[in-house]
Design a protein that fits this description.
Largest sheet: 7 strands, mixed
Structural class: alpha+beta
Number of helices: 4
Shape: globular
Radius of gyration: 14 Å
Order of helices and strands: EHHEEEHEHEE
Length: 150
């Protein structure tokens, strides 16, 4: 298992992974152009030349970043891949002197194990809601906001 920064060649496979969960309304759909734009934000997990998971860290404000587009292929879940992807994002946040990392998620038990706490969505900066307009569930979001102080 290798966790590394994504390259543009990884984007089509990242899109396939995200699309799988987006069809189930478990995460926000992302266009190819959006994914290419955020290439430098993504980490991937590679096993035997196959991309099996992805996760991105997007800086939101001077002291806050979001973990987004977090997904692991179904057949590779429960192998520690998600933990390593999130750890990579948190380590990068520390390098950037960011002291709060949040996520909007349905994977509450997973993120609780990573040290995140549930918070009221109103605690998040308004800037983060720009992506929500693209969501089919907007404005009735049922994702849980979670935050980790690092």
């Amino acid at each position: 298992m290798i966790i590394r920064k994504a390259t543009v060649r990884d984007i089509p496979e990242i899109k396939i992974i995200i699309d799988y969960y987006a069809r189930q309304e478990m995460m926000l759909q992302r266009s190819l152009s959006e994914l290419y734009e955020f290439t430098r934000s993504f980490y991937v997990c590679e096993i035997e030349d196959e991309i099996v998971g992805c996760c991105a860290l997007q800086v939101s404000w001077e002291d806050m970043a979001e973990i987004m587009s977090f997904a692991v292929k179904q057949k590779h879940r429960e192998q520690g891949i998600g933990t390593e992807l999130v750890r990579s994002c948190i380590n990068e946040a520390k390098e950037l002197d960011i002291n709060k990392v949040f996520t909007l998620t349905y994977a509450v038990p997973f993120f609780e194990k990573q040290g995140f706490d549930k918070i009221d969505k109103q605690q998040l900066p308004h800037k983060i809601w720009s992506g929500c307009i693209k969501c089919p569930k907007f404005p009735n979001c049922d994702e849980v906001a979670m935050l980790k102080n690092i």
